[in-house]
Design goal:
single chain, 203 residues, Glutaredoxin, Glutathione S-transferase Yfyf (Class Pi), Chain A, domain 2, 7% strand
Length: 203
């Protein structure tokens, strides 16, 4: 397998999951700042021009964070055994990726995509932060009395929560709600997370 990633991007969650699984894989950095995602050779890997992308052993490529995470989790038997826990974990992952990242952090990190005029940037960032803060409030309730989003066992969904927590705590210096903060600390203590961070030059 080969992971196409950018250091500190959402692909860090898939990087963590690969480390958790422990099967051999390679990494290929994609320089987003230089626009490498929009040029060959990466566009031949993923025409969507974004990370993460996972090239499987048969040469086929998977894209979209939840799809990659779920496929990897299935290969390593990491999906929650209880149907309801699995459903709720998937719900949380989709929310972290689609709403918190796609609508919240995107407005904070890629403000110009939402408002070409600099005069509107503060309003866009404010709206993005509101989405992120609401998201953490939702996740905080979902994590009540749990070590991980599906219960007491780690699952692929936790890697999605981890990367939005990482962005908030490490890039924006946001104070996380209690249950989310405890989850982030728990994730940071995992050896797989430490290895992924070290490999990406983030610790």
């Amino acid at each position: 397998m080969k992971l196409y990633y950018a250091p500190g991007a959402c692909s860090i969650g898939i990087h963590v999951l690969l480390e958790e699984i422990g099967k051999p894989y390679q990494t290929e950095p994609v320089n987003l700042r230089d626009g490498a995602q929009f040029k060959p050779p990466f566009t031949s890997v993923s025409p969507k021009a974004k990370v993460p992308a996972l090239e499987r052993d048969d040469g086929s490529v998977l894209t979209e964070f939840p799809v990659i995470a779920r496929w990897l989790g299935r290969q390593a038997n990491l999906l929650p055994k209880d149907d309801e826990a699995d459903t709720r974990a998937m719900e949380a992952m989709e929310y972290a990726v689609g709403t918190m990242h796609g609508q919240g952090f995107a407005r904070l990190f890629r403000t110009e995509r939402f408002a070409p005029s600099a005069a509107d940037h503060d309003a866009v960032k404010s709206a993005g932060r509101e989405v992120v803060e609401k998201g953490f409030a939702v996740l905080d309730k979902a994590l009540a009395s749990k070590n991980y989003i599906a219960g007491n066992e780690f699952s692929p969904a936790d890697t999605a929560l981890f990367y939005v927590e990482f962005w908030a705590a490490k890039r924006l210096n946001m104070k996380l709600p209690a249950n989310v903060s405890a989850h982030f600390d728990r994730m940071m203590a995992r050896p797989a997370v430490q290895r992924a961070l070290q490999q990406e030059g983030l610790n």
